[in-house]
């Protein structure tokens, strides 16, 4: 990282950013053509760290995963524009995490439910609720296994 003074050294702060984030940006590179998506997610910390995502079970992201399931991701929070008397005084406060990992489509029913519950809880859902089986059958659940990440802040 070029600006070591902005690097986040504490792993717990990295997970705090992931826990507070609202969306994750995923970058694919199948066929050497860049492709990026913004998606909702849930974080699960197990022996490995996962971001779980869901979507319709078709489309370009699935082609990308099949071609090359190594992806990059990014989450940022706490944006605040800071102004000043001169153009070069302006900037943005933020905290962010960037990383890499492998994406896989999950077929195991128990892991699918764990993933969907984690995703819903990330956005504040509490309780049991009813899971509509017809909707569940059409929903793809995707696991992003985090292999590396680093954080940056400007305060």
Describe this structure in words.
This protein is α+β, with helices and mostly antiparallel strands. It has helices at residues 11-20, 60-67, 109-122, 133-138; strands spanning 7-8, 24-28, 35-39, 42-45, 49-56, 70-82, 91-106, 139-154. Strands 1, 2, 3, 4, 5, 6, 7 and 8 form an 8-stranded antiparallel sheet that branches. The radius of gyration is 17 Å and the shape is globular.
Quick rundown:
Helices cover about 25% and strands about 45% of the residues. With about 160 residues, the protein is an alpha+beta fold. The protein has a single domain (about 5-155), classed as Pnp Oxidase, Chain A, CATH 2.30.110.
Global geometry? globular
The value of Rg in angstroms is 17 Å
Helix content: 10-25%
What are the segments in which pLDDT stays under 50 over at least 5 consecutive residues? none
End-to-end span in angstroms?
17 Å
The CATH first-level class comes to Mainly Beta
Number of strands: 8
Instruction: Provide the number of structural domains.
Output: 1
What CATH architecture would you give? Roll
The CATH homologous superfamily corresponds to Electron Transport, Fmn-binding Protein, Chain A
How many distinct helices? 4
Average pLDDT reading: 91
Judged by helices, strands and strand pairing, the structural class is alpha+beta
* Quaternary form: single chain
